[in-house]
What we know:
The structure is a single chain. With 404 residues, the chain is of the alpha/beta class. Helix content is 29%, strand content 16%. The chain is built from nine helices and 13 strands. A seven-stranded mixed β-sheet has the order 4-5-6-3-9-12-13, with helices on both faces. Mean pLDDT is 86; it is low at 1-50.
Amino acid sequence: MKFEAITIPKGLLLFPCTLVVVVVLIPLMRSLNESASSIYGTNFESVETRSSCNIFSGNWSRYEKGPYYNNDTCPYIAEKQNCFTNRRPDREFLQWRWKPHQCELPLFDALQFFNLVNGKSMAFVGDSIGRNQMESLLCLLSSVSHPEDITTKHISNYKDEMYFKWWFYADYNFTLTTLWSPFLVKSTRAYLNDTSLDNAEKLYLDEADQAWTSQIQNFDFIIFSGGQWFFRPLTFIQNDQVIGCQLCQNNTQHDFYGYRNAFRTAFRAIINLKGFKGLTFLVTHSPNHFENGEWNKGGACNRTMPYASMEDEVAMHIPYALEELHQMQVEEFLEAEKEAKKKGLKFVLMDITDAMLMRPDGHPNKYGHAIDKNVTINDCVHWCMPGPVDTWNEFLLYLLKMQM
């Protein structure tokens, strides 16, 4: 029997192939993409998309789904930030999320975070603002895992337990700590016994504080923050010589000289730390929002909603020296970043200042303590939990994804 060749039109030949793509490959690709989304976060983005967006430029937009946690589901909220336990009556301040102008900031994904830090260690170095962020992170991670408190294994003086804290997530071999160092450099720590602010604290501006330098050599992530302590009377010492002071009468006045030099010394200490190979973050200055008086003269933060934009009413309420402090931090960071690159180290900037400047509603105010306590100072420095401070850790996760 003789078979004749049959000519099939090209269009007819392409049809089954197209059908295979539509019916089989596209659903498969969608399935793979959804799987990736479940692994890499709530909103799947490419590295190219993330790197082209300035996540720190934006506005606060309405978000009705509520916070990640509350004071019932998270046991790690300190009393001073536990605004609802202390009977804050309003909830309006929880109904906002940060929206960058050019992209979306993904929701915090605790499982994704653990996947990134599995087998690693992270230290928050600074003052109680850094501890505020770390406790927020503990709460955000509590939906997946709870850590063991291993503080007593790392400190010899039980009094230090209120300043230093160590946590260990056995499920992920992840260590998290906060290392108390409000000035980042060596100080006399006179503030521990004298909180009157009458006597100047001595800062040794060319010596990094061993409270953190002695601990972080093998850490994978170091997160610096701080600033509020630099508003007090200070005496500046370099090369074992007094070179000036701040809020003083009998010496050369150098306002915020200590602030710039403290960060400069801290960054140099990291860069020159033998064997250190970790990733260093700088969290920029967290603004306070005292109105109608200074912090110790009746100032308060009674607002219940954020400012609409940076060009709005916020321009009339920029805290004292905020712009100068922010500029100093960024300048020192950029210089340190250049030097770090020469040694193969990475420095990452987390610029929270503008975003938090728009959140005068996010502080504990008078709800930073039980209302039956006779406390006259309002807290317009720290941040309620839950609250806007949780956004810092959304930033942190976003930046970790870009670097790893």
